[in-house]
Amino acid sequence: MVSLSVVVITFNEAANIGRCLDALGDVADEVLVVDSFSTDDTVAICQARGARVVQNAFAGYVEQKNFATAQACFDHVLQLDADEVLTDELRQSIQQAKANWQHAAYALARLTNYCGHWVRHGGWYPDRKLRLYDRRLGRWEGLLLHEHYEVGPGHTTGALAGDALHYSYHSIAQHVSQLNKFTSITAQELALKGRTRVTLFHLLLKPLWKFVHGYFLRLGFLDGFAGLCIAGISAWGVFLKFAKLKTRTERAEA
């Protein structure tokens, strides 16, 4: 049986972190929270539940998650977001992996709650992410956004049974606000990669395809109003990303 550090990075997650930590059960041999100097009750909530809290200024998701992984007491790490909750089935699957560790990393499925509705279509489920890993055999990679855990060459990955419940957006306003933030970061990331050419294809056809793909081809309509909101806002996000990239490029060339 390997020992496991559960690691969570936080910033002003008082509304979520207690629920996340309470659902860990007995899977964690250590609970580590790396906090970016929250101004709410996040730290107090974590400490009241016995978590070890380390403060570290946020320099990016990849940097913060690699820093948090390095601070863990044990080499085997389960990395969670503050708005994620383990189900009973997933906890049992993690315990089985601890007892018979076979891979460099394991993926878990996320079931997302959007404005009170559990989303099972539109490409949002099962949304598998590598989150349980041996830190000696991989690391977090990426630029500014869309960070992912990547195992070293020659190593295998497995899959865990059960879902992590992902409490993503409590309101449409929150979704739009987050989208505005993330599209700005994504536009910056594209510019860093040298992808600065923006045409009507990017501004019109790609957003339309995003909607059609999510709402019709990936059956987002089966999620009712939530599915329509997700498809529409996601399409708007594609437009925003390229519109921001275009204005960013034009300013740089002026």
TrEMBL record:
The keyword Transmembrane applies. One of its GO terms (molecular function) is transferase activity. Residues 5-136 form the Glycosyltransferase 2-like domain. InterPro entries: Glyco_trans_2-like (IPR001173), Nucleotide-diphossugar_trans (IPR029044). Pfam families: Glycos_transf_2. Signal peptide: none annotated. Keywords: Membrane, Transferase, Transmembrane, Transmembrane helix. The chain crosses the membrane at residues 215-239. The keyword Transmembrane applies. Coiled coil: none annotated. Belongs to the glycosyltransferase 2 family. WaaE/KdtX subfamily. This is Glycosyltransferase family 2 protein. The lineage of its organism: Bacteria, Pseudomonadati, Bacteroidota, Cytophagia, Cytophagales.
